[in-house]
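Please review this one.

:::
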Amino acid sequence: MTSPTTTTQGSPTARPVSAALIGAVVLLTGIAPLATDMYVPAFPDVARDLGTSATAVQLTLTTFFTGMALGQLVGGPFSDQRGRRAPLLAAVAVVLLASVACAIAPSITAMGAARFVQGFAGGWAMVIGRAVVVDLASGPQLVRSLNLVQGVGGIAPVVAPLLGGVVLQLSNWRAPFWVIAVITAVTAVVVWCVVPESLPVERRHAGGLRAFGTAARQVLGNRSYVGYLLVCSAMMVALFAYVATSAFVLRSMNGLSPLEYSASFATNAGGMTVAALVSARLAGRVATRAVIVVGQVLALAAGLALLTGALFWGTPLLLALVCFFLLMVAIGLTIGNSGALANAAVPDHPGTGSAVLGMVQWGTAGVAAPLAGLGGEHTAVPVAVLVSLGAAASLAALAVVARHPA
């Protein structure tokens, strides 16, 4: 149990969440989209240079997502025991080293291992950054802060594919990883200067597997938390089905060039960013659950329309572009809000709550990505099915499991 202090959630004397701190957390959460979206367009080049198959290259996504899931699972409870600042700085340093290892990888095996470490450390940093916000904010401020993190952080998936395309025009597939290393170094400096120690000694848990198990049981025993966890994770299925297959749907099936695809990807990410920023503005004014429902219904409509087009019309380009854009807007309305409500449901265990949330989210991503590609390069049926099922499951979890807040 934690003892009340001046920084306890909900306390009127809690330290405000500054714009600089939000910016630092945005940089931390931007590691994942940068490390993914910048090099996805270079998959064929990686396969050619390392003498391996496209499937083996795609598996580096799965190893990264698996690392992200495990890193968040371990990093959150560890920071509950040891504090936030020192473990966060260590994680950013490891991301930097792993990015360099990816850039110089001599084989696909070495690349996969480096990607796992990069994901593990990135997940560790991401969950601690989110826990810092949860330490310092509560109520509408928490919802607003986490939506701002997602909204401003949406710049990363907008910029990443465009930056990756430019870098690949000037150099080879290794260059994006050097760019990620430089950005990570900048992030380390910002974290050092801006992020405080938000968890005082008297609020830290004893640590150890027993303490983590106890905290995890308490977190997973909270019906509201589990409900919003399911709401968020089901939407992650839809999101990463899109991430894994949109290049095939738009390029292989509809003939877009790499630059045109990057522009489409950036536009969709921009829609997600605007939606998340709108959610942040609505916090405290409109019921957060109502905003989530709007996003879920929008995602379900996009999935069903995409499925209809895939089954009967061969997924025409305009339909695919509209459905993908609507899906990303829906993601902006749902994931940040449901994550904020999940964290708010377990204020005594912000690190463990963030860790379990992140682990399930990125574990789901690691499963959804290969499933979406089961149909090959020339059908959109799998991605349409996963988007529809993810949205429907998210709606069901909100209605049946997640309780209305008091």
